[in-house]
Amino acid sequence: MFPSSLLQEIKDRLSIVAIVGESVPLKPAGRNHRGLCPFHGEKTPSFMVNEEKQIFHCFGCGEGGDVFKYTMKREGLSFPESVRALAERAGVRLPEEFTKTTHAEEDAAHKKKRWGLRANQVVAEYFQACLLDEKKGLEARNYLKNRGFSDTEVFKQHFLGLADDTWDDLVRYLTSKGVPLELAAELGLIRPRQNRDGYYDFFRQRIMFPITNARGEILGFSGRTFGTPKTAEGQDAPAKFVNSPDSFIYHKSHSVFGLAPALSAIRQEDAVWLVEGNLDVMALHQAGIQHVVAPLGTALTTGHLRLVTRFTRNIWLIFDGDEAGINAARRSWPLFLELGLVPRVVVLPQGEDPDTYVQKMGADAMHKLAAASSTLGEWVVDRVMLEAGHGAAGSVIAMRELKPLLKLVHDPVEQAMYLRRVAQRFSIDESVLRASLAGSEKKQMINATLQRHSSDSLEVRSIERRVLKLILQYPELWSAMHDKLALSMMEDDFSTTILQTLQDAAGKEGLSIGRLIENLVDKDLSGMIEEMSLSEPECSEEDALAVTNGYVDILTQRFQKSQMQELNQKIAEAQALNDEPRLIELLTQKQELVRRLSWRAPQQTQKTN
């Protein structure tokens, strides 16, 4: 394990706001910075980062932690990998025992992942050497040249390669490089022979497109035919593209082609274009449009969208101008609605795809199409209405298809815009269309009412939680409050737990929320503390002490009144038992409590006047 002092040194040298801000646009919000969460889809920013406390927290999905946790989640790293990456960035030299290539603290899964990535890198280098070989790669290079790709720099940018038409050249190459064949088979690079021992190459006579993560590490491959590749049984392979099977490092529904070379442009443009094919990506990159990637597989998934929204929420869909492209655009809208995204859509002219269109018309024409695009929602609604026809029958057909989609639109303004569009198209009163969605609205109203009544029953506990929340938001309050707050004053179990945690964590130097969270074993509790700490303060920093003192006064009086009731009960019991020594003791306690209550009463009166 890494020493806590070392981890703190790394954090002290880094700005969590700067690191998060590289991928999430942040705006100041009091002591915090606020932005859209990179880990789930949302339209209203609920993602908070605090420089002083060195933590982040999303109030939408609950993700939170320190800069190490952010990098782990953002980049898909293990904890040791995150520490090493951030240590290098911070200029902190790690002790030798933490820089060795074999790390005792990493489990077998992480070691296997490193071996898998290494194996894919070795294979990618082999494929690229085959493509660039004067004889072996001639046919494949000529095919690419005929498709408009003659620049070898484009090949190198995307690490293009060639799987030549042999049965086991790759098997023998892997053996020579010391890559375990069982591991290569698990990655889908080779397959076991059916009738005898040994393996054969899975990809044959295909142009190879490596699939990378954001850091450029190769997760898998996509192979495209350019001749007539053979299967193990010697028959023609029907599939134009063959992808690596899902493995312990590659998941087709969570990977896109072209991410690493596009990433810098995506961040610079704060936008991404999603196209359908690998060659579309390459054609646009070659034309100078760099912020382009392509999903892997037959259809767009929420996994693809969650990946690209880590870098931007401004998405353009560029679909082929055929029936399949149009249907794909329509099917994708619910995925975006689920994640709270509002993409724009470009449907190319009939018979065109981005590859052919940009080579015929140029990059400026592509940019003009993107600039003139409508939102996907507008396009889908208009398309459905166009196909539904006119009149009453058309309106019924259109609403039958649109109703389940419009119920997925969570933004009431956006939903109203679509309803208005339909109402104008069919000359229907908008209120009639709203009535068709009233079932879901009524359900929301009932849920809100139930929640409001539930919150009324929690009002007694709210003062305790407000005090603790203010202390977590303004940790400097602890020095003034720790002597005034006692566990016995808390009626709420949750508040008792939080106060106990604060008492245990506070040291001579005061209260550090970041270190408190870092040292907590209970991750549910640490998440709650993150949320309270980064939530919107009810008052300014200047008013925090006065507001907290006011709440503590209320808690103290409530506690003392409770003590008075308890004492009166005990006094009555002592009188009934004629226990004079006990009675004198209790009356003395009551006299002291009355004195304290009478001393506080004028102060409270003065505050309220």
Summarize it:
55% of the residues lie in helices and 11% in strands. It is α+β, with helices and mostly antiparallel strands. It has 27 helices and 17 strands.
How would you describe what is shown here?
This protein has 609 residues and is of the alpha+beta class. The chain has 5 domains: 4-98, DNA Primase, Chain A (Alpha-Beta Complex), CATH 3.90.580.10; 108-250, DNA primase DNAg catalytic core, N-terminal domain (Alpha-Beta Complex), CATH 3.90.980; 256-372, Dna Topoisomerase Vi A Subunit, Chain: A, domain 2 (3-Layer(aba) Sandwich); 381-455, no CATH class; 459-608, DNAb Helicase, Chain A (Orthogonal Bundle), CATH 1.10.860. It has 27 helices and 17 strands. Strands 12-14-13-15-16-17 form a 6-stranded mixed sheet, sandwiched between helices. Helix 14 (354-361) crosses helix 15 and helix 26 (541-576) runs antiparallel to helix 27. The protein starts with a helix and ends with a helix. 34% of the residues are buried. The model is unreliable at 440-458 and 601-609 (pLDDT under 50).
